[in-house]
User: Fold this.
Amino acid sequence: MEQAGESVPIAELLDERRHLLEVAGWMLGSRIAAEGVLDEAYRRWFGLSDRQRARVVPRAWLTVAVGGICLGRLAPADRQPEEHRSPQGAGHPGTAVESDGAVLMRALESLTSAERTAFVLDDVFGEPPDTVAGLVGRSEPECTEPADRARRSLRAQEAQPISPHRHERIVRSVRRACASGDSGRLLSLLAPDVTAFFDGGGKVRALTRPVDGAERVARSLLTMFASHPRTTLHTHSVNGRTGLVARYDDQVAAVISFDVAGARVVLVWVVLNPDKLRSWNHPRLSGA
Assistant:
């Protein structure tokens, strides 16, 4: 049974999503409709508390949820339960909502709209913490955290620049450490205050909150990219710099980029959102 707050191997995430798509596709007879059902099922999953999620087997729970949603959509409109007639609430915590005027930096892609607002009010307009907290409906610590993370990203980008060759060498070392499960080597490549962001977009069972600290980040990466006969991890150009691409069978399952300061990784960005990976899974690219 999954432990709350722990990452999940790529193979498990992809197998789970494929299984759920098969169930929904078989019941509804449409791949497009099945995708919508999965979006709803994962919204419900992320709507559970950590304690509730820790009590169930994720794949079994999601399968039941998918079946129920499909049955609701197949029922005549006048016989559908109220929960199927009205749209569900907003997306799960951690899904970023892009907005005009947001600070154009990758760190903010991982923030909710409330967190993003908190950062802009606090860092750009200099509003006091209690005022920001009142405006976004969060406690002061909850407002301070995203602003601190955004500042850390800026510091990483402004830190002593390293050559592309050195950046590539460090990323290649990270790949070897992950592929071999060498936690000691991986820890030596991570800054003590490194942060990892996992962007699943609410469409796979990825972590919804950032992971801080070298030990926790290393454990998350080693778990996610654990050796598996059908999983590969290779270096690849990502946003103009050397990053990593994880494949499960022939499908790109994750794209990972790194911010490096000095000789260590300070930020890790793991994109798991299937929508954002579609261009990577284009037929011309899948065999690249």
Notes: The two ends are 36 Å apart (CA to CA).
